[in-house]
Amino acid sequence: MAFVKTMPKKRKGNSSRSRRVNPVIAVVFVCATLLVVMVVALVAVKSAVEGWLKGDEFRDLLVQKAGVALKAEIEMPEMTWQGSEVYADIFEAKGYEDAAFSLLGLDGVRANFGGIQEQTVIIPEMTVNRLNIVFSEEKKKRPSGGGDSEVIVSGPSLPNFLQQFVPNRVDLEEIRVATASVIVEDKPSNTRPFELSGVRGKFNPDFETGVWEVKGTGGKLRLPDQPELRIKDLSMRWQTTELYIDRCALGIYDEGYIDGSGEISFAEEGNFDFNLDISSIDVDELLEAEWKDRIGGIIEGPVKITGRPGDFVYEGTINVADAVVQNIPVLTVIAKYTRNDQFEYLNLSQAKTDFKSDGEIVGLRNLVMQADGLVRVEGDIDLQGEQIAGILQVGVTPGTLRWIPGASQVVFVEKRDGFLWAPMTISGTLSEPKEDLSGRLIAAAGEAILKQLPEGLLNEAQKFLDPSADSLDPGSIINQGKDLLDSLSPFLKGF
Questions:
Q1: Which of 256, 303, 382, 413 could form a disulfide with 316 if both were Cys (CB 3.0 to 4.6 A apart)?
Q2: C-alpha–C-alpha distance, residues 133 and 241, integer Å
C-alpha cells in the first residue's frame, strides 16, 4: 500500500504575524517623513522669507512701521542686499504736525540681518554715515484721512499653517553714527537757538516706548550769543517732544570746562531748562579789551539757562579764584592818599556775585570783593548794553585812612565788620566808567586842610572864590572852588 506524503498546512495565525509591522519601525518612518516635510517646509519658508526680505514688501513694511512710530512721511527708495547685510543710500522722515521733529535724515545706512525670532526681524546693529535731526515749527500736513493706524503689508506666499513664521515687526537694537547733528530752528526769528554738529554717537531706539537713548562724543554745540562749545561727552534721551540731557561735558575757550544737564521741550513754542557747572574759565576770555588789564582770575560756579528760543534767561553765581584787580581809578586815588601801593594791585581773597541776564539787561547782585587787611566792596550793578549803573559800599581798614585828611570824619563814617564804609555810585559806560568816591575824598581832604588854614588866609580864599560872601563856610568854599582844589592837588599829593 502506497503512502502519499502530504505537506502540513500553514497556520493562518503565522501568516498574520509575518505581515505585522514593527511599531518601532513605524514610528521611525513617521518621524522621518515628518522631518522631511518639516525640512522641506522650513526650506520653503526660508526661501520665501528671504525673497520677501529682499523684495519691495519688506521695504514697505519698514517704511510703514517707521512712519507710524515716527509720525512722519518716510522716503527710502531702495535697499541693496549683500549676504546678510542690507544697504540704503538714504532714509528720510518728514515729520507731520503731531511729530516731535520736522526732519530726520540718514545717509549711508547699513544694517546686519540677525535672523527672525517670534515673528520679529532682528537687526542687532545699524551703521549710519551721517544723521541729521531738525526741530522746527515747519512740518508736513498729514494727508486727509491719514492717521496712525497701520497699513496691512502682504507677507510671502505660504500655506496658512506656515504664516505664523512670517515676521510682522522689526527690532533694531543699536545705531552707530559716524557724524550726527541736532538743530533747533526758530522760524519767526530765523535763528538756531540750539545746534549740535559733528557728534560721533550711538543710538538705542525703543519703538515700543518711543524712547531713544543717545550717547556721543566729539563735535560742537552752539547757543545764541555764546562762544562755541566742544563736546567731550554726551548722554541724553529723546521721547516724542522732550529731549532729556542726562549729562554733557563741554569744553569752552582754551581751558574752560562745563558739566551740565537739562531738558528741551519742543511742544508749542519750545522751552529750555539747563543746569550748568562751569570751571577753569579765564576772566580775560569774557572781558572787553579795555578791561583785560584791570581784572584777572579764573571763573567757576553754577549757571542756569531757562526760557524759549530767542528769549533765554541766564542766572547763577560766579566765583573768581585767584582774582586780581588793578588800574581802577578809585583804587589809584586811594593808593595815592593812603601812601599804600597795595591798592593799585589787589590780590582778592574773595570775589563773587550773583547774576541774571534777561534780554539786554545784566544784573549783578550781592557783589563781594575783598582784599584781606585792605578793602572790601559790596553792592549791586546793572549793565544795559555799554551802560553801567550801580551803588556799592566800599570798606577800608581804619589804619589806611590816617593819611587822607577828613576821610574818616566826612566820607568813611560807617563802622561795620572791622571796616570803615563809604557809599560809591558807578555810572558811565564799560569803556569809561565813572565813580563819585574819588571826588568826595578830594573834597574832604580839601575841606580838612582849609579848616586848618590861618583865618587871614581863609578870608583871602573866600574873597577869591566869592567876594560878595559874608560868612566863612568851608563847605561853601569847596562847592564853589573846584579850580582852587585843582590848584591844591600837587599839595594834597604830597600831604
A1: 303
A2: 13
Which of 111, 125, 128, 129 is closest to 53 using CA atoms? 111
**Sheet strand arrangement including 169-172:** 116-117, 120-123, 169-172
Look-up: residue for cell 572791622?
A: 418
Question: Mean pLDDT score of the chain, rounded to an integer?
Answer: 77
How do strand 175-186 and strand 191-206 relate by DSSP bridges?
A: antiparallel
CA 85 to chain centre: 37
Inform me whether the pLDDT recorded for 259 exceeds 90.
yes
Give the number of other Cβ atoms within 10 Å of residue 460's Cβ. 12
How far from each other are the two terminal CA atoms of the chain, in whole angstroms?
Answer: 181
The Cα 114–Cα 84 span in angstroms is 8
Sequence-distant (≥ 6) Cβ neighbours of residue 160 within 8 angstroms = none
3-state class of 341 per DSSP? helix
Tens-digit pLDDT profile for residues 334-357: 777 777 888 888 899 999 999 999
Q: Is 360 helix (H, G, I), strand (E, B) or coil?
A: coil
Higher-pLDDT residue of 52, 130: 130
**CA nearest to 217, candidates 205, 229, 235, 203:** 235
Q: Can you read off the three cell numbers belonging to residue 448? A: 580838612
Residue 421 and residue 296: Cα distance in Å, rounded?
Answer: 25
In the block, residue with C-alpha cell 547763577 = 316
Which of 367, 369, 370 lies closest to 381 in space, CA to CA? 367
Q: At what angle do helices 482-493 and 437-451 cross, to 10 degrees?
A: 80
DSSP 436: S
Break the chain down into helix, strand, coil percent, rounded to 5. Answer: 25, 45, 30
The DSSP bridge pattern shows strands 169-172 and 311-326 to be unpaired
Phi, psi (degrees; rounded to nearest 5) at 196: -110, 125
3-class secondary structure for 116-157? EECCEEEECCEEEEEEEEEECCCCECCCCCCCCCCCCCCCCC
Distance CA 198, CA 216 (A): 10
Q: What is the pLDDT of residues 420-432, one digit of tens each?
A: 999 999 999 887 8
The pTM (predicted TM-score) of the whole model is: 0.69
Please name which of 123, 137, 116, 58 lies closest in space to residue 309, comparing C-alpha atoms: 137
